[in-house]
Amino acid sequence: MKRTLLFLLFAAPAAAQEPLQEASWPPAKAKDSVFAGRKLDTYKHGVAKEWGYAKPQQDTFLVLHPKEGKAAAAGKIPLYVVLHSAGHDVHSCLACTTKPGNHDIYHAPEGFFALYLDCRANRGDWWWGINKYPGADVGPTEKRVIHSVKWVVQQYGLDENRVYLCGNSMGGSGALGIGMRHGDVFAAIKANVPAEVKHVSSRMRFPPQELPADAKFADPPIVIDYSAPNDGWSRGHDGFAKAMNDRRYALIMYWGPFGHANDHRAILKANDLIDSFDWLNVKKNEPYPVFTNASTNDPLPWPDRLAEKKPGQINAFFRWNQVSDTHDKAEMTLRILSDSDFKTSFALPKEAAADLTLRRLQRFRIEPGETVQWSFGNAKGEVKADPAGLATLPQLKVGAEPTQLTLTRRP
Q1: Domain of 185?
Q2: Are 396 and 354 in contact (CB under 8 A)?
Q3: What number of CA atoms fall less than 13 Å from residue 327's CA on the CB side?
Q4: 186-200 residue pLDDT tens
């Protein structure tokens, strides 16, 4: 009798969900409501054939509108995309935002639309797909996420150049793994204490994997990562940081003894730089500089100094402003932070030397093997682009005063 009851208990939900197998894409709005003074749309959907799921499933995502009177008066509105941690689903993730300090990274800016996605409802999607779909190929979970993001951008008429991806813990792992491969979608990504870096390492073919010569990834989003050496989930950040540096991908990284924290007030006590970079003003259609081998980078505590209490950073002091990007010339100003920017416990340097590579050039496209001329203050020279069309300027010396960098084509 007990076995029969157990069978009925487990069989009933499956039978109740049977009609959902007919559901597909696009999503259907299941509910209109108000959450914390902001309009909230709840959507449900099945799967699209091109995602490649082996079985039908149903998923839910939430679209949170800007707070009334807070959205931009003119122009399209940006989108803030949130991936939840292992302790949450899409609904409990949003519920965290009613309390300051409760998973601060889930709290969408009042002037933004926000998209909250779910990976808990279906077993194969757990851990944002990396467990079910390991390897370098983009799997069904990631295709669902990207398809959902693009649909929301189009459906609500949002700014496709200002789409930002973030996550905490498991969601941080997903943000890195999904976001890095989709620089054509996301302007920047921010990962709060990501629970390992195996997702991004797998998708980007970081060592010990080999990157095929014909592999082509869109210029990735700028990555902001803050992790703690006394957090077991942070293991592997030494290899991750090295791969990002060697591939000339834009990484701003912070660490300190804050464990697996999600309350920014606690994290800021250990490292007060974590919110110093305005990642929500990065635009997908603007060039950005990648700083590598910087003289001001702190030594990483991974893998063998995990008890270290001192906070540290990689590339946290660099700032820039776009000037121009035409067919014949690219210009931007570069500087490092100074005491007038904000108060910090870090000793701000007077000068920083770093190799510099420009990515996401929109009009000043550099062909593989092409030689371009550059000037930066009193320094100038020529540099030949690599087979990927990336031109790297060696060890530019950047100070606190904004200095213009100019790249031009040979006459």
Answers
A1: 25-285
A2: yes
A3: 0
A4: 999 999 999 999 999
